[in-house]
Amino acid sequence: MWDYTEKVKDHFLHPRNVGEIENPDAVGIIGNIVCGDALKLTFKVDRKTNRIIDVKFQTFGCASAIASSSVLTELLKGKTIEEAQKITNQDIADYLGGLPEEKMHCSVMAKEALEEAIKNYKGEMQPIEPQGRIVCKCFNVSEEKIRKVAQENHLKTVEEITNFTKAGGACGSCLGEIETILKDVWSTKEPIKIEARSIKKRTNLQKIALIQDILEREIRPSLQADGGDIELIDIEGNKVIVGFRAMCVSCPMGGITLKSIEDKLKEVVGEEIMVVEE
Amino acid sequence: MKTLYFDNNATTQVAQEVLDSMLPYFREFYGNPSSMHTFGGQIYRKIEEAREQVALLIGSDPDEIIFTSCGTESNNTAIMSAIETNPTKKHVITTKVEHPAVLNFCKHLSRKGYRVTYLPVDSKGRLEIDSLLQVIDDDLALVSIMHANNETGVIFPIEKIGHILKERKVVFHTDAVQIVGKLPINVKDLPVDMLTLSGHKIHAPKGIGALYVRKGTRFYPYLIGGHQENGRRAGTENVAFIIGLGKACEIATKSIQKEVGFVKHLRDKLENSLLSNCPDASINGDKENRLPNTSNISFEFVEGEAILLLLNEYGICASSGSACTSGSLEPSHVLRAMGVRNTAIHGSVRFSLSRYNQEREVDKVIEVMPEIIKNLRLISPFGQERLTGKGYAS
Question: Is there a catalytic annotation at residue A251?
Answer without folding.
Answer: no
